[in-house]
Amino acid sequence: MPDLAQLLRDTMRRRHLNAQALAELTGIRTPRIRVFAVDGATGPIRPTEQELHELAHALSLPASTVLDAAGLLPVGTPGS
Q1: What are the tens digits of pLDDT across the range 29-57?
Q2: Rounded mean pLDDT, 68-73
Q3: Which three-class secondary structure state does DSSP give residue 2?
Q4: Crossing angle, helix 30-39 and helix 4-14, to 10 degrees?
Q5: Separation CA 14–CA 48 (nearest Å)
Q6: Dist CA 71 CA 64 (whole Å)
Q7: What is the pTM of this model?
Q8: Which three-class secondary structure state does DSSP give residue 67?
Q9: d(CA 73, CA 80)
Q10: At what angle do helices 19-26 and 49-58 cross, to 10 degrees?
Q11: How confident is the model at residue 5 (pLDDT cuts 50, 70, 90)?
């Protein structure tokens, strides 16, 4: 499973979205999305679980995929 940064970059590229467009879809500020796309969930600015759900919805990805990429799915959870 790719990390959150890679997942965001790949999915944004496939959907022809930049950070600003994704920010408009989610309500998450553009600078935060840029940081998530560079540092993933382990950088100095970490996404909240709510932000991860919003990103999943906006990118038409299963929430479990995004949570797993962010390292937030507990062991034994389907999809992990």
Answers
A1: 999 999 999 999 988 999 999 999 999 99
A2: 88
A3: coil
A4: 120
A5: 24
A6: 10
A7: 0.87
A8: helix
A9: 6
A10: 110
A11: very high
Q: How many CB atoms lie within 10 A of CB 15?
A: 14
pLDDT value of position 72: 84
Q: Which residues have C-beta within 8 Å of that of residue 60, sequence separation ≥ 6?
A: 15
Question: What percent of the chain has pLDDT above 70?
Answer: 88
| N residues, the chain | 80
Average pLDDT, the chain: 90
CA dihedral 18, 59, 51, 67 (to 10 degrees): -120
Angle at the Cα of 8 from the Cα atoms of 60 and 67, rounded to 5 degrees = 70
How many CA atoms lie less than 13 Å away from 47 in the CB half-sphere?
Answer: 34
Measured distance CA(54)–CA(58) in Å, rounded: 6
